[in-house]
Amino acid sequence: MKVLVAGATGAIGTRITRRLVAGGHKVLGLTRHPGKASALAELGAQPVVADALDREALLRAVDGLAADAVIHELTALSSAPTRHSGMVTTDRLRTEGTTHLLDAAQTLGATVFVTQSIILGYGYRDHGDKLLTEDDPFGRPAGNAGDAHLAAMVSAEQQAFTAPIGIALRYGMFYGGDADQMRPVLAKRKLPVANGGVLGWIHHDDAAAATVAALEHGDAGNAYNIVDDLPATWEELFTTMARQFGAPPPRKVPRWVMRLAAPYVASFATDTTMRVSNAKAKNLLGWTPAYPTYRDGIKALRSV
User: Fold this and answer.
1) Per CATH, which fold does 2-175+202-227+277-289 belong to?
2) pLDDT of 303 above 70
């Protein structure tokens, strides 16, 4: 299969590209940074340089190329945003960017379209002990600052489902693949924690494996939750990671301080509780996380 990976130099895109190449697929790696073309070539991908938010430039870049599938992994999250305004470009990539990538898919002749989504689309709120499945409401507005992000997630999914074989992957919160960046942050206690809710998590490597499984085995018009087997709080995960790195425990702050200093982070790290089922992905994609829990994934990270 020949696959265009949009966001091929990102934390997930790089891992997806490696897996696709190792599996015998051919990869076109889309990046908006000309300086990253050589890195894509080293991964075994053919670089395609264009900004997905510039439709005409994107279509020019793929003109004359062909592919069977497009994987949409574009975000603008080189660092974690603390305020809702920091999600504006990522929201645009989920709305306008998805539209442009579907146009590119048509130019390429691609019939499979896999888009990144996220479990936060079930709603930034306390869902209690209910185990959320893909049949639960997704993207329901709540009348708060999170509504713009929910609308963008819904847009990405619904647009993807217009493709002949459109698939959405609702990833959990990522960890593990950014260990080199997290190590100094935790060592300097620059990542605070607060009492908060429970979230579904997924190691970057497991997310990439699930994406390739969805490409190869996913069904048209379906969404899949991509999380591990053990929900955990923000505090539990990053305290465990700090311990693995030999760093001091993260600073603990009151919830109101987190909401004031980092309102976007607080919206999910302290104010959201969700337990999410991965049964559909396991049963229908033939995928099982290599790291069943965050404890397993963190234990595998290099210690000091």
Assistant:
1) Rossmann fold (3.40.50)
2) no
